[in-house]
Design goal:
Layout lengths: L10 H8 L4 E4 L2 E5 L1 H4 L4 E5 L4 E6 L2 E6 L1 E9 L2 E9 L3 E10 L3 E8 L1
Antiparallel strand pairs: 1-2, 2-3, 3-4, 4-5, 6-7, 7-8, 8-9
């Protein structure tokens, strides 16, 4: 079964919302280093072509395949990144709140 395409925002949307521009760290992999804007180690790598995401934060090193949609979610006083996932057997969402404080919520369910 073919993989769903991984939809991501344009690079300038990250700069406008988070103050950070994604940097290509290896072929096809973009990194958002949010350390300076959050004051704590926080990095999100994503591969639009590969449909993968890697989140690194203070000893947490989370890898996920099957990413389908990366969104920047803004609400009054809050900014977050939300990543949806879908594989043949699971669906889920990884939510990374960036402002006003860093918080990570991961939900993975059998489909």
């Amino acid at each position: 079964m073919p993989r769903e395409p991984f939809v991501t925002p344009e690079p300038r949307a990250f700069t406008e919302s988070l103050g950070v521009e994604p940097v290509e760290t290896e072929e096809g992999v973009l990194e958002l280093d949010l350390t300076e804007v959050t004051g704590e180690p926080l990095r999100l790598d994503f591969s639009p072509l590969g449909g993968s995401v890697r989140l690194r934060r203070d000893g947490l090193d989370l890898h996920r395949e099957g990413a389908t949609h990366l969104r920047i979610v803004e609400a009054p006083g809050r900014t977050a990144l939300s990543v949806d996932f879908a594989t043949g057997t699971t669906t889920g969402t990884l939510r990374i709140e960036v402002f006003p404080r860093v918080a990570v919520r991961d939900e993975l369910l059998l489909s």
